[in-house]
Amino acid sequence: MSKLYADILFLLFKELQYDSKSLFSCLLVNRLWCETVVPILWRNPWRYNINYKNKSYLFAIIAFYLPIDIKEFLSSQGINFPPISYQYLLFDYLSFCKSININIIESIIPIGSSINYNQFLLQQEFYNLLIINCPKLKYLDIQSIKHQIFCFPGAKACLETLCELDCNTSIDPVHFYGLASICQNIQKLVIINDIIKVNNGIAKLIEVQGNLKSFEWKDDFEEDYILGDLYKESLLALEKKADNLDHLKIFFQYVEEFEHTLLEEVLPKLYKSRTLIINDNIYFDQFKMLVYQNIEILYIDYITINSASNIIENSGGLLKEILLFKFFEYYDFEESFNEDSINFMNKIIKHCPLIEYLTLAFSPTKKHFDEFEKLLKVCQNLTSLLLFIFNFDEKETSEKNLENGAELLKVLIRSAPTNLREIKFFEDFRFSLQALGEFLEKWKGRPAFSIFTTDYIYRREDYMNLINKYINVGEKDFFKKHDTSDRQSMNISKRAEKYYQAGCGIREESI
Hints:
Radius of gyration: 27 Å
InterPro entries: LRR_dom_sf
Number of helices: 20
Strand order of the largest sheet: 1-2-3-4-5-6-7-8-9-10-11-12-13-14
Number of strands: 14
Oligomer: single chain
Largest sheet: 14 strands, mixed
Organism: Glomus cerebriforme
Mean pLDDT: 80
Protein name: F-box domain-containing protein
Helix content: 25-40%
């Protein structure tokens, strides 16, 4: 029975593996809880939102594993070790560790010494310790690495099980060649491109992988002049992984015409993709030719409604998240916009029964509201909506805008699915005080619901007084007060959050 209890605790704590605050509290309950939590915390001890450079205990625990002679040598060089690093440890912490994060290790190295040479020595010894004591490594972050860890004793046994690698292109290609000789079963590869010249080691590392499922490339440089074709070799290597690749995220900052053409050739071949995320610097008409039967998550910053409709129509009915049109206001709309937006909603209704997070763009006409209501009734899993509602009739008045807002709220009351928790509005779209009050009253008793808008009218005293009446109503909240600087309050989806906010350029207010 006690074994069963321990197994249940482990499963419960595993659900909290990203919540360090809760896990640290669990350590203090009793010995069994502590013994169950420690392996979970130490599986990836670097991932928590902690100021590691001020945490000497992490430095001390790693230093404890140093052989006495090595520790004595380092001490003779002026490196200081906390007294706790000489004491007995309650657990063999590093035996639980399945990850190494170079940046965090380097952030705690100065605890031992502020001298550059001494820090270099400590880095070398710490990396060697981790390679020896962390069996079957799963995750490795080598951004800014200075040591060729693939040459350390025991590196092959430790690194050949690697499943996820985070790196940056400013690392010497030798590091990638060395890793490519050992790590050939990486399933997730994240690349931060922080230099303006080609790193041939990246393409080689991609080339040797036998089971690459997730690929992410993010540019992070300021220069306008690029040396060579930054993405060519990596894209060509990636193309050969089409049979396995499930998740593709591309954040290219500077795309040559040649590379646009190459992307047009490569993207359709990645037909098994379940996630496709592409940033605003990539735009071409060939999006409409993409056919992804397995697609579940689709985020494209710059895409026409018709191209998006074609992707949705050619999908396999598995789409759960669609986040599009980040630069919608800059599009040159044609006279067919109203027809195209109706068609887009119709495609969602027919081909996206599982949709949870959705971007919609339409005009405030009766036909559009009718189609929107039909969508709400069909898409019962819908959790979050991002709405671009544009009125292209120059004769529209402020009074008409308020009527449109009232109609939208009526549609939500009549047909919003029970899962709907959040709506975001971009551009001018207003609710009158009376319409909003009626909506809030009728929504009472339903699950908590949040509205985000860019309009400052909802900061007026009369609106705030109305809204405050419906905060903390009984056990269920209607409006949740959000600090707009809180990243969690801005989410379209947890997975979409960072992607969308980067470069969004719009201040959002919660009402």
